[in-house]
Known about the structure:
With 298 residues, the chain is mainly alpha-helical.
Amino acid sequence: MITTSEITNKKFAVFMTVAFSALIPVSIAAIAYKNGNMILFLFLFRIIAILLPLIGVLAARLPFKSLGWKPKFKFKYFITALIGPQILSWLGAGIFFLFNRSAFGLGLEGLASQLPAESVAAMQQLGVTPEVLLPVLTIMSLTFLPITQILPSLGEEAGWRGVMYPFLKGKLGSVPGRIVGGALWGVWHWPLIILGNYFYDGDYIGKPFLGPVMICLTLCAFGILIDYLYEKTNCIWIPSLMHASMNAATLPVMLLTAGGTGSLSVLGPTCFALIGCLPVMAVSLVILFAGKGRKKAA
């Protein structure tokens, strides 16, 4: 793990400049997504943009090897990173549907916000039913999908948890550092919401202001969980796995919203919405205040 003393103000400025230069390809990717150009979207966002935080680490000449490349950690942290987001995501979806029962219903339409429209159309043509796809996607989100998405997630994690969080925690303190770090992580995603209607469907409640606020809030909560595991393991692969699992957890949940959730999408059922993220927020608050309490006791 890169220590605070190794991240000078100048090096941090270089890192942030490179990492947030991704706002340009993310903005173009968002427009491409809105216009249905999934190939350009995936190339600009899932390849170019997510690599820039990692490139920022190299550009700032920070100790790259200190990120923690050797998988020396307890197996329980691997399981927590892989399954934790899934459990919290399903709990959040359950709370959302408990209070919004009319939004519940099996259907492929809800996947349109997470998968290319062509993929959903192909499933429909092949006669793939939500009843069959739900257990398949659930199993894949618990196994195959997070593992295959570790490398893309690594691009962000090397920058956010590897550099940005340690610097901010060193300057502001652990709790405010994590909160500010999560907010900045959310801002990095703003073009996807503002320009591309990504994360939240169409005319969601409070558009266009609530969506950008919500992504900062939810990523702040997830960032605390991810950073906690990174501190425990000192291995960059673990936060990358949890990041990948967080993304994968949305897929099976979206099958439960036939036709999508429309104006309610900023509330749920995914873990990037207010109600859907409540379990994540609860665990994050426990981590924050438990850690603060231990420091006072010491």
